[in-house]
Amino acid sequence: MVVSGTQLAEELSSQLTERVRALSHTPSLAILSIAPDFATLKYLDIKKKRGDAIGISLEVVSLESSVETEEVLAKMETLLHTHDGVVLQLPFPPHIDTKRVLDALPRHKDPDCIGREAGELPYSDMAVLPPVVAAIVHIAHTHRVSFEGSQIVLLGRGRLVGAPMERYLTEHHITPTVITQSDQNGTTAIKDADIIISGAGVPGLITPDQIKEGVVIFDAGTSEEGGKLRGDADPSCAQKAGLLTPVPGGIGPLAVVKLFENLIVLADRGESGEF
Description:
By secondary structure, the protein is α/β, with parallel strands linked by helices. About 40% of the residues lie in helices and about 15% in strands.
């Protein structure tokens, strides 16, 4: 089965539109990027269109590649004062001190759950989950995929997919097998996996000969190849997988809506003085 994340996103968007109308002000989000590439620009366009449809006020700020860390911090500080949430559209160029910028992002303005403050609390104590994690959990719940008792393989330990997903599973007393680029036993682990969660960003990394019949593949890897967005799983894996989230149209659209859901929660808590 190929999952339509777009359809799930549409269903959730309708609910969020009603929640926005119940607030006393229009929730506002700022997205701060630096010299965005092809894949990032596509993703930003999706966010803008979806935000408009839900009723979110969204400002995209794109800085030049020559910008310095101090300038990024100053710009973020300005945006924090004028918006309910700020998203740092990673990756930043190597010369930017990304950790320092993330450390300066307060939890109550962090719908991506990516800053230092968000990392200091267990997910069970937070009002929101990282959008990609929330999207995967939403799809799993919708299609009755259970993480408990399954052999789970995470491809990559990146900041946006692998690391937060590993944290989520660990907090639920589930130990996944994490495969990074340097691991030598990756092929065997993938072959034995009941569930594969991939965020490597390598087009066609997962092929049908590597997986077993009926495996569940949550493909959260996005990259550009030949002017098109590609996922980590080759589309032909759908012939063998019990469930596959495609790229594009899978986890991405739903994660965008989950980001706005997080923003609405933060804006609502800000209104009620819970922060």
